[in-house]
Design goal:
The chain is mostly beta strands. The chain has helices at residues 31-34, 55-59, 103-106, 184-187; strands at 38-40, 65-66, 76-77, 85-89, 92-93, 116-122, 136-142, 149-155, 158-166, 172-181, 192-210, 215-240, 245-274, 277-305, 317-348, 352-376, 403-428, 432-445, 450-463, 470-481, 502-517, 520-527.
Amino acid sequence: VRLKEGENRKLDVTLHSIATDLPDVVISDRGTEASSLTRLNAKQATLLPSMGGGVETLIKTLPGVVSNNELSSQYRVRGGNFDENLIYVNGIEIYRPFLVGSGQQEGLSFVNSQLVNNIEFSAGGFAAEYGDKMSSVLDVTYKTPDVFAGSLTLSLLGAEAHVEGATHDNKFSYLVGARYKNTALALGMMDTKGDYRPNFTDAQALFNYKFNERWDLSFLGYYSKNRYMLIPQNAKINTGTIDIPLQINVFFDGQEIDDYTTGLGAMTLSYKPNKNLNLKWIASAYSAYETETFDIQEQYFFGIRNTSFGSEDFGEVIENHEVGTLTKHARNGFYAQVYNFDHKGLYAMDNQLLKWGLRFQHQEIDDVVDEWQMFDSAGYILPHVPDVIGGYPDVLPDIATDFTHKSHNVLSINNLDGYIQNSWTLPYQDKGEFVITGGVRANYWGYNHKVHISPRAGVAYKPNADKRETVYRLSGGVYTQTPFYREIRNRDGSLFRDAKSQQSYQIVAGNDFKFKAWNRPFILTSEL
């Protein structure tokens, strides 16, 4: 406003408030790209059309991961077995049931896909911060909600529901989920016909309270009751060869009842004195009470099938052969409690990231094995009582069984493990940058009083770091797996006293290439 000399002017200005929607801001880290961890979209875990559902079903779609049972959440990675996979939820190691022998008995896995915020998975060559197993690591982080929300899912196989929210000042947040699963419809299509009554339920909750900018406390609680009941009736199995087509007809008496009850409680205290330092203390307790009871008698008939097309009795048994009986009995019980006390730390410097951790673990095991099995054909296994004129024999022969397993093991084991690792980000002229990670793990297994040292290292190169379209990785090290109780118990219930830890030497070379095609982002991953 320009005024002439001696001029007065009054100017009234009114400001009106307006709202402008800003675009979404995506915050991503570069550490995952430089490591062997693959980040997965948590929303996809809730959309997969499968009987198992959940995060594990998403893991099975990755290369190198194999599972031959759609009812099971277990998987094998690159030649390993089901017991060689690490699973973490919010930094807490998760354990699987001990007595489960098949996918139809298994029920619900621990991870509730409705509560998940972040999923990271490595199929080998992972860093020292992850524990002492050999095949893979699945690291799951649950949500920290800031608004009220919920979900409800209904299907012919069960139901899921969850609710989440926070107080108006965001100091307290809650995340609660419950699930029910019944696979009777699917089990009715199996070869063995009968009355299937599987009932699997669980509930879990995550509560978080933020005292101030430095201190916060969280609690993760979990309870699961998986009950499997079967009253078998009959089964028809076709086998044999083209020349000798066999059919086995089986008729059952008896029933099987399995019960797997597990619980977990974990308290995590976090302290952030400044933006570069993060300290955590975790105290957790895991409890498992499992029973396996069955008395089943199987009467089986072997016969030759009619394979002549057009015949009136095509597919029917035209010639009966062997007939026999199989009797199974079990009264097995397993009780375990695992207590963990962890400390984890993270310190970020200009171009470095230092991590360390220490854990003390106490295991209490009480295991009862009472199981036997007996084959019979035309009464051949029944004992022959020798004739004694005028009396009875002093020693009566026993009925012969295929095996009789009876044992009672009580163990108390203390374990200790820890790690330290550091990452360096080094620029390479103007062509890109190197990320070098080195660390070492150490663990003491109280069962055989052995100490194992596991060095691990990795290097990643990112050309044109600003664009981050390509990453080359090389990682490896020593991976030592101390057995859990299920791995030191023989089939007859006895303990393998000279058990040793498994050990693996791994080198993983990989490449990630990001590109766009058909207006969509793609990533091509190669690993050797």
